[in-house]
Amino acid sequence: MRNLMMGMVLVALAAGLVGCGPSKEERKAMEVFNSMDDMIKHGAYVKKFERFEQRPDKVFIIEAEIVDANEVPLGLLRSERVEGFGTARPRIQWYKTPGVREEWTAPQGRRGRRRSREGEGMRGERDGTRTRERAATAPNGP
Fold first, then answer.
1. Is the pTM of this model over 0.85?
2. Is residue 50 within a helix (H) or strand (E), and if so which, with residue range?
3. To which H or E segment does residue 76 belong?
4. Domains in the chain, number
5. Alpha carbons 75 and 68: distance in angstroms, whole number
6. Within a domain: residue 118?
7. Are 102 and 93 in contact (CB under 8 A)?
């Protein structure tokens, strides 16, 4: 009876240890982020992920808070990781005042802008036809 109980305890302990801790993908992403030059320069690291969520297309969405050696919050990090492949270069937002948490602000600038279909160098529609405005002003007619 005693051996049976001891065996059950060992099996439960082994099952508990196998299921604990970060996944292989989390460990890889953590290693990539903490070895980045920008993080080392600031004396910062990622201690744990606030969000490590897998999408159906085997891409993980990653969000984490960046801290220093005294665990003072220094900024936020967002990135993605493709399972078994690699980690995208993260977007980092450093806090203006260390220790004072801020909300994530969307980057300003050119991100997401696209040239219009009438932009220079565009030849028209994908099927080879020209747009009406360009066809009307073209020297060889519509």
1. no
2. strand 44-54
3. strand 73-82
4. 1
5. 10
6. no
7. yes
Per-residue pLDDT of the chain (142 residues; tens, 9 = 90+): 777 666 666 666 555 555 566 788 899 999 999 999 999 999 999 988 999 998 999 899 999 999 999 999 999 999 999 988 888 999 999 999 988 888 888 777 655 555 555 554 555 555 555 566 666 666 665 5
**Residue 34's Cα: distance from chain center in Å?**
14
Closest alpha carbon to 92 in 104, 68, 76: 76
Three-state SS string over the chain comes to CHHHHHHHHHHHHHHHHHHCCCCHHHHHHHHHHHCCHHHHHHCEEEEEEEEEEECCCCEEEEEEEEEECCCCEEEEEEEEEECCCEECCCEEEECCCCCCCCCCCCCCCCCCCCCCCCCCCCCCCCCCCCCHHHHHHCCCCC
Does 3 fall in a domain?
no
Determine the structural domain holding residue 48 and report its residue range: 21-98
* 34 within domain boundaries: yes
How far is the C-alpha of 142 from the C-alpha of 125, rounded, in Å?
14
Tell me whether residue 142 is in a domain: no
